[in-house]
Amino acid sequence: MATLFYSEMLSRQTKSLLEEYFNVRLMDEALQCVEELKSPSHHPELVKEAISLGLEKNPPFVEPVVRLLKYLVSKKVLTPKDIESGCLLYGSILDDIGIDLPKAPNNFGEILGSLVMANASDFGMVEEILMKMEDDRFKKAVLDAVMKSVSESLLAAQAAKVEACRSLV
Protein backbone atom coordinates (compact mmCIF):
# COMPACT_ATOMS: atom_id res chain seq x y z
CA MET A 1 0.00 0.00 0.00
CA ALA A 2 2.76 2.44 0.99
CA THR A 3 4.73 1.52 -2.14
CA LEU A 4 1.72 2.21 -4.35
CA PHE A 5 1.15 5.57 -2.64
CA TYR A 6 4.84 6.48 -3.04
CA SER A 7 4.78 5.47 -6.70
CA GLU A 8 1.66 7.55 -7.38
CA MET A 9 3.16 10.51 -5.53
CA LEU A 10 6.36 10.24 -7.61
CA SER A 11 4.30 10.05 -10.79
CA ARG A 12 2.34 13.20 -9.87
CA GLN A 13 5.51 15.08 -8.91
CA THR A 14 7.22 14.00 -12.13
CA LYS A 15 4.34 15.20 -14.30
CA SER A 16 4.18 18.45 -12.35
CA LEU A 17 7.90 19.18 -12.72
CA LEU A 18 7.78 18.36 -16.44
CA GLU A 19 4.78 20.62 -17.05
CA GLU A 20 6.60 23.38 -15.17
CA TYR A 21 9.70 22.82 -17.32
CA PHE A 22 7.67 22.91 -20.54
CA ASN A 23 6.09 26.19 -19.42
CA VAL A 24 9.23 28.06 -18.30
CA ARG A 25 12.09 26.00 -19.85
CA LEU A 26 14.47 26.58 -16.94
CA MET A 27 16.97 23.72 -17.00
CA ASP A 28 18.49 24.35 -13.58
CA GLU A 29 15.07 24.40 -11.95
CA ALA A 30 14.15 21.12 -13.65
CA LEU A 31 17.48 19.64 -12.53
CA GLN A 32 16.84 20.68 -8.94
CA CYS A 33 13.33 19.23 -9.00
CA VAL A 34 14.57 15.89 -10.37
CA GLU A 35 17.28 15.76 -7.70
CA GLU A 36 14.69 16.55 -5.01
CA LEU A 37 12.67 13.51 -6.04
CA LYS A 38 15.56 11.43 -4.65
CA SER A 39 14.45 8.42 -6.65
CA PRO A 40 16.96 7.22 -9.26
CA SER A 41 14.88 4.07 -9.78
CA HIS A 42 12.12 6.34 -11.11
CA HIS A 43 14.37 8.01 -13.72
CA PRO A 44 13.33 5.74 -16.63
CA GLU A 45 9.70 6.68 -15.91
CA LEU A 46 10.71 10.36 -15.90
CA VAL A 47 12.29 9.91 -19.35
CA LYS A 48 9.15 8.19 -20.65
CA GLU A 49 6.90 10.92 -19.19
CA ALA A 50 9.08 13.71 -20.62
CA ILE A 51 8.75 12.19 -24.09
CA SER A 52 5.06 11.44 -23.67
CA LEU A 53 4.06 14.85 -22.31
CA GLY A 54 6.30 16.68 -24.77
CA LEU A 55 4.90 14.89 -27.80
CA GLU A 56 1.30 15.44 -26.66
CA LYS A 57 1.81 19.21 -26.93
CA ASN A 58 0.61 21.09 -29.98
CA PRO A 59 2.96 21.62 -31.67
CA PRO A 60 5.04 18.75 -30.22
CA PHE A 61 7.96 19.80 -28.00
CA VAL A 62 10.68 17.70 -29.64
CA GLU A 63 13.55 20.13 -29.03
CA PRO A 64 12.63 20.98 -25.40
CA VAL A 65 12.45 17.25 -24.58
CA VAL A 66 15.85 16.62 -26.17
CA ARG A 67 17.44 19.62 -24.42
CA LEU A 68 16.12 18.51 -21.03
CA LEU A 69 17.24 14.89 -21.37
CA LYS A 70 20.68 15.82 -22.72
CA TYR A 71 21.10 18.35 -19.90
CA LEU A 72 20.15 15.85 -17.20
CA VAL A 73 22.61 13.32 -18.67
CA SER A 74 25.37 15.96 -18.85
CA LYS A 75 24.77 16.75 -15.16
CA LYS A 76 24.99 13.01 -14.37
CA VAL A 77 21.47 13.00 -12.92
CA LEU A 78 20.28 10.65 -15.66
CA THR A 79 22.44 7.86 -17.02
CA PRO A 80 22.44 6.49 -20.57
CA LYS A 81 20.75 3.40 -19.05
CA ASP A 82 17.93 5.63 -17.71
CA ILE A 83 17.55 7.12 -21.20
CA GLU A 84 17.50 3.68 -22.80
CA SER A 85 15.00 2.26 -20.30
CA GLY A 86 12.72 5.29 -20.54
CA CYS A 87 12.80 5.27 -24.34
CA LEU A 88 12.01 1.54 -24.31
CA LEU A 89 9.03 2.24 -22.04
CA TYR A 90 7.76 4.90 -24.45
CA GLY A 91 8.51 2.75 -27.50
CA SER A 92 6.52 -0.14 -26.05
CA ILE A 93 3.35 2.01 -25.97
CA LEU A 94 3.95 3.83 -29.25
CA ASP A 95 1.75 1.45 -31.24
CA ASP A 96 -1.22 2.67 -29.17
CA ILE A 97 -0.16 6.33 -28.97
CA GLY A 98 0.54 6.59 -32.70
CA ILE A 99 -3.14 6.07 -33.48
CA ASP A 100 -4.14 9.25 -31.63
CA LEU A 101 -0.92 11.17 -32.32
CA PRO A 102 0.06 10.29 -35.91
CA LYS A 103 3.22 12.43 -35.76
CA ALA A 104 4.43 10.75 -32.55
CA PRO A 105 6.50 8.03 -34.30
CA ASN A 106 8.36 10.60 -36.41
CA ASN A 107 8.84 12.96 -33.46
CA PHE A 108 10.01 10.09 -31.24
CA GLY A 109 12.51 9.15 -33.95
CA GLU A 110 13.84 12.73 -33.95
CA ILE A 111 14.28 12.55 -30.18
CA LEU A 112 16.07 9.19 -30.44
CA GLY A 113 18.34 10.48 -33.20
CA SER A 114 19.27 13.53 -31.16
CA LEU A 115 20.03 11.36 -28.12
CA VAL A 116 22.18 9.05 -30.26
CA MET A 117 24.04 12.08 -31.66
CA ALA A 118 24.64 13.34 -28.11
CA ASN A 119 26.08 9.94 -27.08
CA ALA A 120 23.26 9.57 -24.57
CA SER A 121 22.36 6.35 -26.38
CA ASP A 122 23.13 4.33 -29.51
CA PHE A 123 21.59 2.30 -32.31
CA GLY A 124 21.42 -0.72 -30.02
CA MET A 125 18.63 1.07 -28.15
CA VAL A 126 16.92 1.99 -31.43
CA GLU A 127 17.04 -1.67 -32.44
CA GLU A 128 15.49 -2.79 -29.12
CA ILE A 129 12.70 -0.24 -29.48
CA LEU A 130 11.95 -1.32 -33.05
CA MET A 131 11.78 -4.95 -31.90
CA LYS A 132 9.15 -4.03 -29.29
CA MET A 133 6.99 -2.22 -31.83
CA GLU A 134 4.41 -4.08 -33.93
CA ASP A 135 3.16 -1.52 -36.46
CA ASP A 136 5.50 -1.58 -39.47
CA ARG A 137 4.50 1.95 -40.55
CA PHE A 138 5.43 3.32 -37.13
CA LYS A 139 8.72 1.39 -37.14
CA LYS A 140 9.59 2.89 -40.52
CA ALA A 141 8.63 6.41 -39.37
CA VAL A 142 10.77 6.09 -36.23
CA LEU A 143 13.81 4.73 -38.08
CA ASP A 144 13.52 7.25 -40.94
CA ALA A 145 13.46 10.12 -38.42
CA VAL A 146 16.44 8.69 -36.50
CA MET A 147 18.43 8.33 -39.73
CA LYS A 148 17.71 11.94 -40.73
CA SER A 149 18.77 13.15 -37.27
CA VAL A 150 22.23 11.60 -37.14
CA SER A 151 25.44 12.33 -39.01
CA GLU A 152 26.92 10.21 -41.77
CA SER A 153 30.00 9.55 -39.64
CA LEU A 154 27.86 8.20 -36.80
CA LEU A 155 25.94 6.01 -39.25
CA ALA A 156 29.27 4.65 -40.48
CA ALA A 157 30.61 4.12 -36.95
CA GLN A 158 27.54 2.12 -35.92
CA ALA A 159 26.98 0.50 -39.34
CA ALA A 160 26.29 -3.01 -38.03
CA LYS A 161 23.60 -1.79 -35.63
CA VAL A 162 22.15 0.52 -38.29
CA GLU A 163 21.80 -2.47 -40.63
CA ALA A 164 20.19 -4.50 -37.84
CA CYS A 165 17.65 -1.68 -37.43
CA ARG A 166 17.00 -1.53 -41.17
CA SER A 167 16.32 -5.27 -41.22
CA LEU A 168 13.44 -4.74 -38.78
CA VAL A 169 11.40 -2.42 -41.01
TrEMBL record:
Gene3D superfamilies, sorted: 1.25.40.180
GO cellular component: eukaryotic translation initiation factor 4F complex
UniProt xrefs under Pfam families: MA3
Alphabetic keyword roster: Initiation factor, Protein biosynthesis, Translation regulation
Single GO MF annotation: translation initiation factor activity
InterPro entries: ARM-type_fold, Initiation_fac_eIF4g_MI
GO biological process: regulation of translation
Positions of the MI domain: 9-131
The name this protein goes by in its record: Eukaryotic translation initiation factor
Organism, scientific name: Raphanus sativus (Radish)
